[in-house]
């Protein structure tokens, strides 16, 4: 990709541009082909990824949806102090002033009733029955019904528009037809569970691997269902000829642990990669950035800055922590940050640099990045100085966010950026 794309690639759209952001809660990035999975069939996501710019190192700033959506819609880190919604412009509020129609489609009551959601012109609050039963056909599934609601809005949408969709089917009901999960069963494997209940459990050290395998196959089937629905949705957009003026973003608000660190489901939302890693891809109407990817550290507030910039002839509104991703896609600016920090439940925190990931809980854990993708090898006892430096950096960052002085933080040392060499 060219390192000097003309500004018209982005700013030429302005008021004629539309955007859709698809947020899939509890989508495990490691279960997508675009992020390295080789055994789950996700052709629609893979095809979309080939047309998009991918971010390999995008992490949530909190697993708490209320604070996470403040980051998405207001550009403020989860560690920022609470304040009135009117103190900082929200994404839908900014776009409304520019004449962009905004709508929110969600099946999550917390997202629908978020204090910033009132700034959307329209809220389509899907009220599913949440019947814990496996569907016989795709069209009976919860994901299929949600995409029908999205399509219904698009068929009557006033342009230009920004549609934000938050769907929680991966964490609420695994209702894909049984054939979806059984497709991943090899000869000799046990049959996967036949129910739609979403598991949440801490596995015993001597847990039955066959039990976990059945859970993994069930989740894989649900991912395949999502992919099938996405494929039909992408065909709808193609038939609608909406791709010519549409930015399409796909991301995940939280992952779903599947046996890593002996956790299945939320289980206290421990800050490991299977929970914190976001899938994130941006497909631009003219193909800009297609099939390219970046190791830039990205956090949820960056979507606020990116979407805010798309309809304006100048950079996004100032924010202490958010950074537009447009310069990253254009490859005309350095990485916006050298660290990411995550606020977990209670006092749990985590910090990520290009070379390290520190999980600061009751006992600190340290992992080398990006090689140890899913935090398998804890090296804290061999790198005590690194642990101390990252603990200090984490404390400094939290204090800086709360005081609004993130820009004044000194750069990290070379060993925290590049590792031990």
Structural features, described:
The chain is an alpha/beta fold and 421 residues long. The chain has two domains: 323 residues, Alkaline Phosphatase, subunit A (3-Layer(aba) Sandwich), CATH 3.40.720; 79 residues, Arylsulfatase, C-terminal domain. 31% of the residues lie in helices and 17% in strands. The protein contains 14 helices and 15 strands. The strands form three sheets. Strands 1, 2, 3, 4, 5, 7, 9, 10 and 11 form a nine-stranded mixed beta sheet that branches. Strands 12-13-14-15 form a four-stranded antiparallel beta sheet, covered by helices on one side. Strand 13 and strand 14 form a beta hairpin. Helix 3 runs parallel beside helix 11 and helix 6 runs parallel beside helix 9. The longest helix is centred in the middle third of the chain and has 31 residues. It is globular, with a radius of gyration of 21 Å. The N terminus is likely disordered.
List the helices and strands and how they pair.
Layout: H1 8-11, E1 18-24, H2 43-50, E2 53-59, H3 65-74, H4 91-97, E3 101-106, H5 109-112, E4 122-125, H6 142-156, E5 161-167, H7 169-172, H8 178-182, E6 201-202, H9 209-239, E7 246-251, E8 263-264, H10 273-276, E9 277-278, E10 280-283, E11 293-298, H11 301-310, H12 326-330, E12 340-343, E13 349-352, E14 356-360, E15 365-368, H13 384-403, H14 414-418
Parallel strand pairs: 1-5, 1-7, 2-11, 3-4, 3-5
Antiparallel strand pairs: 2-9, 2-10, 6-8, 7-10, 12-13, 13-14, 14-15
Helix pairs in contact: 3-11, 6-9
């Amino acid at each position: 990709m060219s390192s000097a794309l003309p500004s018209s690639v982005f700013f030429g759209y302005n008021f004629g541009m539309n955007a859709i952001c698809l947020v899939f809660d509890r989508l495990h990035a490691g279960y997508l082909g675009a992020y390295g999975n080789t055994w789950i069939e996700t052709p629609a996501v893979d095809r979309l990824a080939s047309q998009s710019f991918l971010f390999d190192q995008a992490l949530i700033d909190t697993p708490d949806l209320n604070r996470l959506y403040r980051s998405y819609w207001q550009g403020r880190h989860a560690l920022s102090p609470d304040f009135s919604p009117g103190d900082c412009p929200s994404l839908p509020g900014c776009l409304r002033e520019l004449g962009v129609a905004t709508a929110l489609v969600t099946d999550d009551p917390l997202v629908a009733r978020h204090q910033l959601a009132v700034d959307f012109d329209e809220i389509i609050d899907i009220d599913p029955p949440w019947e814990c039963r496996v569907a016989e056909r795709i069209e009976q599934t919860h994901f299929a019904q949600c995409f029908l609601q999205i399509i219904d809005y698009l068929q009557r949408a006033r342009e230009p528009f920004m549609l934000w969709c938050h769907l929680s089917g991966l964490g609420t009901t695994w209702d894909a037809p049984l054939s979806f999960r059984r497709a991943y069963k090899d000869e000799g494997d046990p049959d996967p569970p036949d129910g739609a209940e979403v598991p949440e459990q801490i596995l015993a050290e001597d847990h039955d691997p066959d039990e976990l395998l059945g859970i993994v196959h069930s989740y894989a089937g649900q991912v395949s269902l999502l992919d099938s629905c996405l494929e039909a949705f992408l065909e709808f957009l193609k038939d609608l000829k909406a791709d010519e003026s549409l930015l399409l973003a796909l991301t995940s608000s939280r992952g779903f642990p599947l046996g890593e660190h002996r956790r299945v489901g939320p289980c206290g939302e421990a800050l490991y990669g299977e929970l914190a890693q976001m899938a994130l891809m941006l497909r631009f109407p003219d193909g800009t950035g297609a099939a390219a990817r970046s190791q830039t550290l990205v956090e949820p507030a960056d979507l606020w800055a990116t979407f805010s910039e798309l309809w304006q002839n100048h950079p996004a509104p100032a924010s202490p922590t958010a950074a537009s991703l447009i310069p990253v896609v254009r490859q005309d600016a350095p990485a916006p940050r050298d660290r990411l920090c995550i606020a977990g439940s209670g006092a749990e925190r985590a910090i990520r640099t290009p070379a390290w990931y520190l999980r600061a809980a009751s006992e600190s854990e340290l992992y080398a990045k990006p090689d140890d993708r899913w935090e398998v090898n804890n090296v804290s006892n061999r790198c005590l100085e690194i642990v101390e430096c990252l603990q200090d950096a984490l404390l400094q960052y939290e204090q800086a966010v709360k005081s609004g002085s993130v820009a004044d933080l000194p750069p990290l040392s070379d060993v925290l950026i590049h590792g031990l060499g």
